[in-house]
Write a structure and sequence with these properties.
InterPro entries: Ig_E-set (IPR014756), MoCF_OxRdtse_dimer (IPR005066), Mopterin_OxRdtase_euk (IPR008335), OxRdtase_Mopterin-bd_dom (IPR000572), OxRdtase_Mopterin-bd_sf (IPR036374), TAT_signal (IPR006311). The protein contains 7 helices and 23 strands. It has 3 domains: about 10-60, no CATH class; about 90-320, Sulfite Oxidase, Chain A, domain 2, CATH 3.90.420; about 325-435, Immunoglobulin-like, CATH 2.60.40.650. Helix 1 crosses helix 2 (about 15-25). By secondary structure, it is an alpha+beta fold. About 15% of the residues lie in helices and about 30% in strands. Strands 6, 7, 9, 10 and 11 form a 5-stranded antiparallel sheet that branches. Strands 16-23-22-18-19 form a 5-stranded mixed sheet, with no helix packed on it. The protein binds the ligand Nc1nc2c(c(=O)[nH]1)N[C@H]1C(S)=C(S)[C@@H](COP(=O)(O)O)O[C@H]1N2 and molybdenum atom (MO). Molybdenum atom (MO) binds next to loops.
């Protein structure tokens, strides 16, 4: 069928889902007869499990964020970086396509980039980079990177680093910010010292309840000394053994855009707590109040609010441990496979903030039946988990691979992102990848 028809189905769903439903499905219910043929025409293939297609849901082929679609995504061109999806140039933001996250340990070149301001100059002597720890401590510390490495035990861990807005593009209505698909996630192997050890060396006062983080990146306004972002966390997270002051990634220097020469890695919590180009940790006697704190920033409603409504976030809470999510890295969304393909060997990763992943399931029949995948143990706490599994296909045609993970508390990714909030945090609905066979 023509491009025009594809566009009109897509547009109709976007503009008037009720009417689109009525057109595609007749009355609410399963796709049948002429309507099924029309939908098949729109996706360009027969739909073997079309009878299971849920009313009111745009086919995945049309519903992925524009940035993640095969059509014409802007691609990052940067030395040392792979073909990431460019989300914006000022500040620079780039997302990793799910298929580039097929590596068990994310390479530096495929690590997403999320900047709120500019990128600092390359330091002439990284070892001389200075970090200050002050505030509610007995002995404020000013220490160089070289001294940090000498003085404290050095550890290496695989750690998930996920933007608090990962999955934002799937919220409806649309929310403010980078329209990330599922690719604002990395699982690098970080080397550094534990923040805990350094805080203990400074000696926390009983009044120490939170941290505040500062980096050397210039604010886009050019105003000297104005932080582009300065977030902080409760002290218990700062004292966790996987919260690192990191100075190496995958055994090599950290790329400048990813925070060299020194950054926080606060795994499992919003990536904004992993301050790059780290210069100062201010230990606070109350929750930190820098840019990126309070209001609707990195905060989610306690009681659901009306999607699309405005809210000052006064009754919201900070998003802390990230919710369970999965990615499919073996097959690109929109992939076309050879006629006669009758099974798919699927592969991906899943993670769940401070928790672990208990199960991953995949469906190729619009959720009527689910196949349990094999989920590997994490390399260490706070590393993501790889999953693999096979699904069978009865014939050529249009399929959607739906994939969803369940965390160690038994919470499963919801059908659609829930708890809508104005800046689109914590959305972790089930993902759907369109696959065409033949
Ligand atoms: N100094 C500084 N640190 C920062 C940011 C920033 O803009 N400036 N962005 C944060 C956000 S929102 C995220 S998601 C992570 C992204 O880390 P990455 O760019 O290395 O992937 O860095 C965090 N640390
Ligand atoms: Mo982020």
């Amino acid at each position: 069928m023509s491009r025009k028809t594809e566009r009109s189905v897509q547009e109709l769903y976007r503009d008037d889902p009720e009417r689109a439903d009525a057109v595609a499905f007749g009355r609410r219910g399963a796709l049948k007869g002429a309507a099924l043929a029309a939908m098949g025409g729109a996706v360009g293939a027969a739909i073997p499990f079309g009878a299971n297609m849920p009313a009111g849901t745009l086919p995945a082929l049309f519903s992925r964020p524009a940035a993640a679609q095969g059509s014409a995504p802007a691609v990052l061109q940067m030395e040392g970086k792979g073909p990431l999806i460019l989300q914006g140039e000022r500040p620079l933001n780039a997302e990793t396509p799910e298929t580039l996250l097929d590596e068990p340990v994310t390479s530096a070149r495929n690590m997403f980039i999320r900047n709120n301001g500019g990128v600092p100059e390359v330091p002439a002597d990284p070892k001389a980079w200075k970090l200050t720890i002050d505030g509610e401590v007995n002995t404020p510390i000013e220490i160089t990177l070289g001294e940090l490495e000498q003085r404290f035990p050095v550890v290496t861990r695989q750690l998930q680093l996920e933007c608090g807005g990962n999955g934002r593009a799937f919220f409806s209505p649309q929310t403010r910010g980078n329209q990330w698909g599922n690719g604002a996630i990395s699982n690098g192997e970080w080397t550094g010292v534990r923040l805990r050890d350094v805080l203990q060396a400074a000696g926390l006062k009983p009044s120490a309840v939170a941290t505040g983080h500062y980096g050397a990146d210039p604010h886009l306004s050019g105003e000297p000394g104005r932080p582009s972002i300065a977030r902080g966390m409760r002290i218990s997270k700062a004292m966790e053994e996987d919260t690192l002051l990191a100075f190496r990634l995958n055994g090599a220097a950290i790329p400048l855009v990813n925070g060299a020469p020194l950054r926080l890695v606060t795994p499992g919590w919003p990536g904004s707590l992993s301050q790059k180009w780290l210069t100062r940790i201010w230990v606070r006697d109350k929750p930190h109040d820098g840019p990126g704190m309070g209001g609707t920033s990195y905060r989610v409603p306690v009681k659901p609010i009306v999607p699309g409504s405005s809210n000052n976030g006064a009754d919201f809470v900070d998003l802390e441990s990230m919710p369970v999510r999965s990615i499919l890295s073996s097959h690109a969304h929109g992939a076309r496979l050879a006629a006669g393909t009758r099974s798919l060997d699927l592969r991906g990763a899943a993670w769940a903030g401070d928790l672990t992943v208990r199960a991953v399931h995949a469906s190729v029949d619009f959720g009527a039946t689910w196949t349990e995948m094999q989920v590997a143990a994490p390399a260490n706490a706070h590393a993501w988990q790889r999953w693999t599994g096979r699904v069978e296909l009865p014939s050529d045609g249009y399929y959607e691979v739906w994939y969803r993970a369940t965390d160690s508390n038994g919470r499963m990714q919801p059908h659609l992102p829930a708890n809508w909030n104005p800046q689109g945090y914590g959305g972790n609905g089930i993902s759907r990848a369109a696959i065409l066979v033949g």
